[in-house]
Amino acid sequence: MLNYPLTEGRRPSSSLPTHVRHIINNVAGPIVMVSRWIQRHCQREQLAELEDHQLADLGLSRTQVRNECEKWPWQA
Q: pTM, whole model, 2 decimals?
């Protein structure tokens, strides 16, 4: 959470009514989850593009990379 100085009209999130915090959490949770899936997908694409010598530097084999890249984005 960003720390903004308190100004007129702005309240810290802890002072928000419970139902408002509940709504924010229900909206933010799925957004964060999908964001992680997209990030994971992009990282796996980048991993798949590495050359064999780069994978060796990371201690990974082409088979390990293939197995990782075959996972669905929501699979860690």
A: 0.67
